[in-house]
Amino acid sequence: MEKPILEVDNLRIRYGGASTEAVRGVSFTLGRERLGIVGESGSGKSTVGRALLRLLPGATITADKLRFGDLDLLTLSEREMLKVRGRRMSMILQDPKFSLNPIRRVGDQVAETYLRHFKCSKAEARDKALTMLEAVKIRDPKRVYDQYPHEISGGMGQRVMIAMMLLADPDLVIADEPTSALDVTVRLQVLNILDSLVRDRGIGLIMISHDLNLVRNFCDRVLIMYAGRVVETLAARDLDRAEHPYTRGLLAAQPRIGGGRAPLAVLDRQPEWLEEKA
Ligand SMILES: Nc1ncnc2c1ncn2[C@@H]1O[C@H](COP(=O)(O)OP(=O)(O)OP(=O)(O)O)[C@@H](O)[C@H]1O
């Protein structure tokens, strides 16, 4: 069997000063696949994603295992972590506006990412950046290269972020609600690009989302998180056969087109869902 890209065992995260853990014993492995993490707001999805990149200043992260390829993410020095972040492991966030520097041209920011990771001339980095903008289906890459972030649309911005990430050729991409700020057509384009990364480049992709329909259609497997723990893991195609009452509740709370005017189900939470061994 192929070695997993990521192995997470009993991951626990406590924000400084918090009385309870935000993540309570999460375990999963990731191969060259699309893994969805879903759950309501505050269930700990983003905290898990950021912990993998060790982007949680002030939080305490413990685990029985937190391995990324041959690296132990728990013991890696910050200096070594700098080589991993953005190079071997990347994150795409919901809104590219917060990730791009507003006062620098888009293309220069992409080229700079390449210069940061690889030794080459500025002209080579520019060529590489243009190739990558083209690879993410930006039609006029030379024009976009010279634009500022406020001059491009959200969908274009998201593709620029993906281009930046691709330059480094990562093994793992964590996409945190990457399409929720996009309209449906652009959303599909961005999903297609992410999908081809998994199929053509063999990366592992973690897709953090609120959207059960999205993960059902896009992912291979899904982790359902509730109050900091994984309550259920299942193949995306089996989502409708989920057994945990929380997952069933989430599914029942999805609005359906053509579903008539019946009131939406309200999730009735049970105290035992909070217990570590459900
Ligand atoms: N920087 C922080 N400091 C303290 N507590 C935090 C911080 N970030 C998140 N939390 C807490 O950790 C818990 C998990 O939050 P997290 O953002 O991971 O959830 P989420 O499932 O990703 O939610 P959302 O879908 O709204 O992004 C929440 O209780 C949240 O209030």
UniProtKB/TrEMBL annotation:
Pfam families: ABC_tran
Domain ABC transporter: 6-252
Membrane topology: Peripheral membrane protein
One GO MF term: ATP binding
GO cellular component, one term: plasma membrane
Localization annotation: Cell inner membrane
Keyword line: ATP-binding, Cell membrane, Membrane, Nucleotide-binding, Transport
Family: Belongs to the ABC transporter superfamily.
Protein name in UniProt: ABC transporter ATP-binding protein
